[in-house]
Amino acid sequence: MIKQDVIVSFSGGRTSGYMCELLLKYYSHLYNLYFIYANTGQEHEETLIFVNQCDKNFNLNLIWVEAKVDPRKGKGTNYTIVDFKSASRKGEPFEEVIKKYGLPNGDYPHCTRELKLQPMKAWAKDNNLTNALWALGIRNDELKRKKKHKNIIYPLIDFEPTDKKNDSVMVETTNI
Q1: Out of 1-5, 7-11, 51-55, 165-169, which region has the weakest mean confidence (pLDDT)?
Q2: Considering only CA atoms, which of 9, 2, 47, 41 is closest in space to residue 149?
Q3: Which residues pair with 65 in a beta bridge?
Q4: Pairwise CA distance, residues 125 & 127, whole Å
Q5: 14-27 and 45-58 helices cross at what angle (nearest 10)?
């Protein structure tokens, strides 16, 4: 049986950590799992510590990426591989996005696109994973955020229905 490749987008939050743990425990026999975290340089230190603890405790082999902005017009955002120690903590990736694209706002919401999506997609392309599925940690109580797309799966909706009321389910993850 050929396993499907799945890129698991780890946001750095408790729900996302729970999704990573769940996929590893119960679904790694079905999927080749690649866990990826996009650091914006604006996260709280506690978030970075939590991400690092999840990586170590669950053996995620987490790929940490940061946006690498090419200031030239017509050149897209790429990525740099970092780790817990080298991850930006002074907002450098975010500042580079602002220099090129301006401040994100309601009319031009490029923050997520340039700081998270583009670096992760560029990494996927460089690793021949352009046909992989993407796992996102959207819960049942967040259904309005779910978008229909052939390459996106929602494990906390479709595999193991979870909502914020089930915080006790996530205790293992949050107390690492």
Answers
A1: 165-169
A2: 9
A3: 38, 81
A4: 5
A5: 10
Q: What is the pLDDT of residue 171?
A: 47
* Both tokens assigned to 125: 């392309």
How far apart CA 19 and CA 83 sit, in angstroms, is 21
Whole-model pTM: value is 0.90
Q: Which domains does the chain have, with CATH numbers?
A: 4-174 (3.40.50.620)
Q: How far apart are CA 172 and CA 150, in angstroms?
A: 31
Mean of the pLDDT values across residues 62-73? 95
DSSP 31-63: EEEEEEEEE-S-S-HHHHHHHHHHHHHHT--PE
**Residue 127 is inside which H or E element, if any?**
none
